[in-house]
Amino acid sequence: MSKTSTKGIWKVISASSMGTMIEWYDFYIFGSLAVVISTKFFPSDNPTAAFLSTLATFAAGFVVRPFGALFFGRLGDIIGRKYTFMATLLLMGGSTFLIGCIPSYETIGFMAPLLVLILRLLQGLALGGEYGGAATYVAEHAPVGQKGYWTSWIQTTATVGLFISLMVILATKNILTPTDFDSWGWRVPFWVSIVMVGVSYLIRKNMDESPVFAKAKKEGTTSANPLKESFGNRYNLKFVLLALFGATMGQGVVWYTGQFYAMSFMKTVMNIDSSQVDGLLGIALLIGTPFFIFFGWLSDKVGRKYIMMSGMLLAILFYRPIYKMMYNTTSVSYKTEIVEKTSQTIETTKNNDTITSISKTYTDGTTYIEKKTDFADKKESQSNISININSSDEWTLIFLVFIQVLFVTMVYGPIAAFLVEMFPTKIRYTSMSLPYHVGNGIFGGLLPAISTYFVTHAKYAGKPDFYLDGLWYPIIIASICFVIGMIYIDNKNKTNHL
């Protein structure tokens, strides 16, 4: 690659990656604040139901991503890559900002969750059009034989977006008091996105159209009906289905298990302090992110198939041992309580509800706080537990989450190049976007809600290892995908159209 072409590709990478990273930030800020959002936009009398409702709303954004892929993919194959993903950027940014402006459930009742759901659906539509455009745009600028390396930079943006969302939340929490953050400060990360979107829009506005697409348009070889050619043509449909069931379905569940489910699991099942979880997850993501580039580069040398399949197989084999170790590392049942430091306070609210606070300290430095509320007007109670773990346990969890992120980088790093190489230029945006967003949006996006439901159900049923039940979903989906991928995917990339 010449010096000039290197400079040109870096400009493309920077502009595409920044915009895509911001869209992921916008999309994931909702998930990063799921625990807080559940108390703001849903009825507070049943915390478990409110949290599950929040996860369902979070998942709704994923469910509509395939529709966004079809709508914006068609526009991208007819009008062009550049203008289409500029539109998705503005749609995403506007929706995210408005979520931060919606009044709480206490103020406007059921209109609050309804408005959140509508804006969440718009976010999903926008992201459905963004990723395919960015990946296609970069791949069509990249030199032959280096598609995996250059497109892997786009692959980092999802994790970097999640990382930045966690860092913005932590910064906001540190600047504001806990009361202010709970009252209105949680809205700040949503508002911040509008500034980033504006900057990214100005950068993307000055980009040129993809040279491959521009050439096809000049020669009159673009598609008049990308949807029909993508899914009505049996030959091309075969590759769409192979991309879905042999790659993106498994990649989707591995991605969301290693990052979002890990975060949800530590906060809601292990009851670790939310800020601690955000911090340790951020470190694990920071350490793991360069491996997206490594595995993208390696896929140019050895092929995409075996790297992606190895990531799935490792996840299938090691998820249960990893999560068992995570749970046991911080479980207070394995720690020694300092009895003389245990304290209990009881207070009565103006509604005559009784709040009992129990504080415990353990010999390894772990602290445990449980607040149990007995409601006067309802014959029921609810408990909230917050565990602050010691430094040694933190680093153990960082390592265990990093291993999961490593699985993510193996399945996700090469997949953009794998997908764009499967389809011809005139229908590439549409053809690659749908399997990607069904695999990630449907199979992956539903994972937090489905797995949390399985864990909750197993806990109520009294299973001793209830916390592992949520893993059956990603393990089964990844196993099916692994078998199909190993049998039918060609590692020699014979379908390469670039």
From TrEMBL:
The Major facilitator superfamily (MFS) profile domain, residue ranges: 12-493
SUPFAM superfamilies for the chain: MFS general substrate transporter (SSF103473)
Q: Which InterPro entries match?
A: MFS_dom (IPR020846), MFS_sugar_transport-like (IPR005828), MFS_trans_sf (IPR036259), Sugar_transporter_CS (IPR005829)
Question: Cellular component GO terms, alphabetically?
Answer: plasma membrane
Keywords from the UniProt entry = Cell membrane, Membrane, Transmembrane, Transmembrane helix, Transport
Pfam families, per this entry? Sugar_tr
Query: CDD domains, per this entry?
Result: MFS_ShiA_like (cd17369)
Q: Which GO terms describe its molecular function?
A: transmembrane transporter activity
- Which membrane topology term applies here? Multi-pass membrane protein
- What residue stretch is flagged as signal peptide? none
Superkingdom of the organism of origin: Bacteria
Compartments where located: Cell membrane
For this protein, the parts annotated as crossing the membrane are 21-42, 48-72, 84-105, 111-129, 150-172, 184-203, 239-259, 279-299, 306-323, 397-420, 432-451, 471-489
Tell me the protein's name: Sialic acid transporter NanT
Source organism per UniProt: Flavobacterium bizetiae
